[in-house]
Automatic annotation (TrEMBL):
Superkingdom of the organism of origin: Bacteria
UniProt xrefs under InterPro entries: MerB, MerB_lyase_sf
Molecular function terms from GO: lyase activity
Annotated source species: Lipingzhangella rawalii
One Pfam family recorded for the sequence: MerB
Keywords from the UniProt entry: Lyase
Protein name: Alkylmercury lyase family protein
Sections of the chain in a coiled coil: none
Amino acid sequence: MADCGCRLPEPLHAVFDTAARSGIPDTAVHRAAHQAILRSFASSARPPSPAELADTVGADQEQRAGVLAELARNDVTGLDTTGAIRLADPFSTQPTAHRVRISGGATPWAMCAVDALGIPAMLRTDAVIESADPRTGAAVMVEAAARARAGDTYPARWQPRHAVVLAGARPVTGPAASVCCETVNFFADREGAEEWSRRNPEVTYTVLDQEQAVRLGIRTFGTLLGTP
């Protein structure tokens, strides 16, 4: 499912394949809750409130808590110590290196560079992704014309024009946030990505060109809201 015309580090296959399959139990209530969470982030940059979720899921407080816990166990969402939603891949409630200005929507944080590229595909709308090269701090921007999506790609304008995505994974086990979210980043160019990798030898990585990165974002998130 995560095939993008490149060879990803093995831990990333599991992470992106789980996201692409949505990783949720195949029940109407879990699907409804998951999609309500994603749509809330897209429209307001925050997860739904308990009352908003109740309107969608139609369950009592104990049942809603159980649904959220099950989504978290399947690495679809992440909860804080109070049981509140703190992330729902590809979105984060906390600041990250990647912001996505959704056309006609909100400006949420994305968990990683591939997640950011997948958001406009998931919503089938244009967006501007703003990030920074973690090595130099140089701005990286992608103007995603996802309304013109054709199959597994969409037109995009990258600045700088030689920007790439480094898809890396740390040698740990656990949720995606621990394995790779901080090591899947935009870089201003391939040379900078390779230099960063040399300074972080514990990270297993692949450098994705622009087309590969867009395709991976689409394959991972493009159908989570049922968009063909």
